[in-house]
Design brief:
Layout (H helix, E strand, L loop, with lengths): L1 H4 L4 E4 L17 E5 L3 H11 L4 E5 L7 H6 L7 E5 H9 L7 H7 L8 E4 L2 E10 L1 E6 H6 L8 H14 L4 E4 L6 H13 L16 H14 L11 H9 L3 E7 L18 E3 L12 E9 L5 H14 L2 H6 L18 H8 L3 E2 L4 H13 L1 H4 L5 H18 L5
Length: 402
C-alpha cells in the first residue's frame, strides 16, 4: 500500500492521553482518520486528537485514495472523511459499516439531518453543509411591501409584482444550464414536492404526477427569467445579482459573500440569504454535506472507539471554538449573514442529496433531457418519458436494472 502513503500532506501523531483534558472520552485504542485537508477538517481532527491515541492524515486528494486504503484488511484507517459524492464508491465496494447501533449508543446529540442513510441504514454522519437557497434583494421586496417568500407560490407572487414594477431586468435567476445545473435544480424541486427519484428496484420514478408538477413549476418560473436561462450557471446568476439585473434566485451558500464584494458588486448589503422556498412538503433544496464514516474492515472494538472519538470531533465544543470554519450541522452553531440561508434551509427540513450510482445516472439524464421542455420542443409527459428511457439504458448497462 506504499502508493497510498506517498503524497499524504499532513500526518500528525498525537501526544499521550493525559495531555488532552477536553475530550469526554478517554481513548485507549489506536485510531487513524483519513480526510480532506481544508480548515474545517483540521478543526475536527484537532478535536478528535484531544481524546489521545489518534492519528489524522489530511490530504486534498483523499477521494482518489480512500477506496484502496479502506479495501486493505485490516483497513489502513478507522475513520474516513467523505462528502456526498465520495461516499458512493465506499458504499458500492462494501467498505464501510452501518452505524445504527453506534448512533443509538453514543450519538444522542445527532440530529436527523446528520444521519445519512442507505437502504434505511445509517452509513455516514454529516457535520457540515453547502446548499442552494433563496437570495433576494431586500430593498426591492421591502419597497414593494413583499414579505420574505417562504413557498414557491410566494416566489411567483413576488416575481409578478417585481416584473410589474420594472425595477430590475428580470425578477428571477436560476442555475438552469444543461447538465449538472438544470439536473440538480429539477432534483431540488422534486425533493421539495416529497418525491423519490428512484424506486427500490432501481427503476426511475419521475414520470408521474410529482414530475409533472415540477415541470409545471419550472414553466411558471421561466416566465420571470432571462430568455437565455439555458446558459445560466452559478457564476452567471452571481453576476446577475452583482450587476443589479435580478431580484431573487436560488444560489449556493458559498456564493453569498460575493454579493458584498465592493470590487464586483453594485448591491453590497442589499441581498438577504433566506431558506430555500418550500414545495408542498419541504424546502426545495438538497444538502451537500461532508462528514464521517467508519471502516468495515476493523474490529468491532475499534469501530466503537473510532465512533466515540469521531463524536468528540463533531461536538458542540468544537463548533463553538471554530464557528466560522463551516456551515455546521451541529448543535451550537451560530450562523452569520452569509450562512444563514443554508442553515435555515437545513433546519427547515431539506434532505441530503441522495448520492448513489442510480441518482448519478438520473442526474445525467435530467441534465441532458430537460432543455427540450424549457425550449418548448417537448411537452412535460414526453420529456419525462424520454429522460426515464435514457436512465434505463444506462442503468441496464450498469447492471442495476434487468
Amino acid at each position: 500500500m506504499k502508493k497510498i502513503v506517498i503524497g499524504l500532506v499532513v500526518s500528525i501523531w498525537l501526544m499521550p492521553t493525559s495531555l488532552w483534558a477536553a475530550c469526554a472520552y478517554d481513548n485507549q485504542t489506536e485510531i487513524k482518520s483519513f480526510s480532506a485537508a481544508f480548515q474545517a477538517w483540521k478543526s475536527v481532527t484537532n478535536a478528535m486528537a484531544e481524546c489521545g491515541n489518534f492519528q489524522a492524515v489530511l490530504d486534498q486528494e483523499f477521494n482518489q485514495k480512500h477506496v484502496e486504503a479502506f479495501s486493505a484488511n485490516p483497513s489502513l484507517y478507522h475513520i474516513g472523511g467523505v462528502a456526498g459524492s465520495s461516499l458512493v464508491p465506499l458504499l458500492n465496494n462494501g467498505l464501510i459499516r452501518p452505524l445504527d447501533d453506534l448512533v443509538k449508543q453514543y450519538g444522542s446529540q445527532l440530529s436527523e439531518a446528520q444521519l445519512i442513510k442507505k437502504d434505511g441504514k445509517v452509513m455516514a454522519i454529516a457535520m457540515m453543509v453547502n446548499a442552494k437557497h433563496l437570495m433576494y434583494r431586500k430593498d426591492i421586496l421591502d419597497g414593494l411591501g413583499i414579505s420574505e417568500p417562504a413557498t414557491y407560490d410566494d416566489v411567483l407572487a413576488a416575481a409578478e409584482a417585481i416584473q410589474q414594477s420594472g425595477l430590475v431586468d428580470y425578477p428571477l435567476g436560476a442555475t438552469w444550464k444543461p447538465g449538472f445545473d438544470i439536473g440538480l435544480s429539477f432534483i431540488d424541486y422534486f425533493l421539495g414536492e416529497g418525491g423519490t427519484l428512484i424506486n427500490a428496484d432501481n427503476t426511475p420514478a419521475i414520470n408521474n404526477s410529482t414530475g409533472i408538477a415540477v415541470l409545471e413549476l419550472m414553466a411558471k418560473l421561466k416566465e420571470y427569467m432571462d430568455p437565455e436561462i439555458l446558459t445560466s450557471d452559478s457564476t452567471y446568476v452571481q453576476q446577475q445579482f452583482q450587476q443589479g439585473k435580478i431580484a431573487m434566485a436560488n444560489l449556493w451558500a458559498s456564493r453569498a459573500g460575493a454579493m458584498d464584494n465592493p470590487d464586483e458588486s453594485t448591491v453590497v448589503g442589499k441581498v438577504i440569504m433566506a431558506s430555500a422556498a418550500s414545495g408542498s412538503v419541504r424546502p426545495s433544496s438538497s444538502l451537500w454535506w461532508d462528514g464521517i464514516v467508519i471502516a468495515k474492515n476493523i474490529s468491532d472494538a475499534e469501530a466503537e472507539a473510532a465512533f466515540q472519538v469521531a463524536m468528540e470531533g463533531i461536538d458542540t465544543e468544537m463548533v463553538q471554538a471554530n464557528n466560522s470554519d463551516a456551515i455546521w450541522l451541529i448543535d451550537g452553531y451560530v450562523a452569520d449573514r452569509y450562512s444563514m440561508g443554508a442553515a435555515n434551509t437545513a433546519a427547515n427540513g431539506a434532505l441530503p442529496y441522495p448520492a448513489s450510482v442510480p441518482t448519478g445516472i438520473m442526474l445525467g439524464a435530467l441534465g441532458n433531457g430537460l432543455a427540450a421542455f424549457i425550449t418548448g420542443e417537448k411537452d412535460a409527459a414526453a420529456t419525462l418519458a424520454d429522460i426515464e428511457a435514457e436512465y434505463l439504458v444506462a442503468a441496464r448497462e450498469e447492471g442495476l436494472v434487468q
